[in-house]
Amino acid sequence: MSQALDTQALLRLMAWLSPAFPIGGFAYSGGLERAVFDGLLKDAAGLEEWISTLVRHGSLWNDALLFSEAWRQVENGAELREVAELGLALAGSAERFMETLSLGKAFIVAASAWPDPVLERLPREVPFPVAVGAVSAAHGIPTDKALAAYLHATVSQSVSAAIRLGVCGQSEGVKVLASLEGLLGEISQRAAQATLDDLGGAAVQAEIASLRHETQNSRLFRS
After folding, report:
1. What is the pTM of this model?
2. Would you give per-residue pLDDT tens digits along the chain (223 residues)?
3. Within the chain, what is the greatest distance between any pair of CA atoms?
4. What CATH number has the domain bearing residue 94?
5. Considering the domain boundaries, does residue 218 fall inside one?
6. Domain total for the chain?
């Protein structure tokens, strides 16, 4: 975990996880919209607690493990296919499935601007964390650094969604990101050393929110 992240690799990582990278991540909230609709999230403090739970015990923890395994299996096409299948099977709702698969496919298409054999080894049906993990490994980006960037980008998207939903203002949203910085670093280190045996979650309320979003009539986000 002590490998240096060179400037070229850093620039690529920044490009891949930038809001401007054409994967359409802004269209998804991961069930957050339903949680706001149901009154489970009302302010910045609630948002921080919600995200922390997902990172420690929910979908973001499992995504981090899938990312890490894809990073390790970058040279093994058969293993990458198995990790991809597992990632899709872990999707707890139709919208969660659509979100991770749509983002994964879009990421691979956009990442083809940086040609690499890993793009041929990855299956067509690939969840987002598996796609980013494998491509990061192929370009020599250390696991923990790539994971930290991935988690930060994902959490930033959740905060952005919360701002659009009126949960908090921009200044409060930035404070949430700053407060979560230590946790994201800790989880990145843990997940980089963990295995698929550590998969599992207990964020039941978040899973229910994701399921209920499927039948919500008026909404801003696709999940």
Report:
1. 0.96
2. 335 678 999 999 999 999 999 999 999 999 999 999 999 999 999 999 999 999 999 999 999 999 999 999 999 999 999 999 999 999 989 999 999 999 999 999 999 999 999 999 999 999 999 999 999 999 999 999 999 999 999 999 999 999 999 999 999 999 999 999 999 999 999 999 999 999 999 999 999 999 999 999 889 999 9
3. 49
4. 1.10.4190.10
5. no
6. 1
